[in-house]
Amino acid sequence: MPLLFAKPGEAVSIKKISGKEEICRHLENLGFVVGSMVTVVSSIGGNLIVNVKESRVAISREMAQKIMV
Predict the structure, then answer these.
(1) DSSP assigned state of 68
(2) Domain assignment of residue 48, given as a range
(3) Average pLDDT over residues 32-41
(4) CATH code, domain carrying 12
């Protein structure tokens, strides 16, 4: 399922990142790599704030749909 559907407070593991190479590289630079754990902190209007590698990162709804957990 896409990260977009994870519930706040739920820790999930990244299974796959889809999209163009530039998008995948950008997400990887933010810490979103296959196998890492991500925790959704909050969801506001589809945009997410997540904990990834001990950092909080805000991502858009479109980016969250490209991250499969």
Answers:
(1) E
(2) 3-68
(3) 93
(4) 2.30.30.90
pLDDT at 14 over 90: yes
**At a CB cut-off of 8 Å and minimum separation 6, what does 21 contact?**
none
User: What's the token pair of residue 35?
Assistant: 């196998």
- Give 65's contacts (C-beta < 8 A, 6+ positions apart): 2, 3, 4
Q: For the whole model, what pTM was predicted?
A: 0.87
Side-chain half-sphere of 52: how many Cα atoms within 13 Å? 23
Helices (H), 1-69: 21-30, 61-66
**What's the structural domain count of the chain?**
1
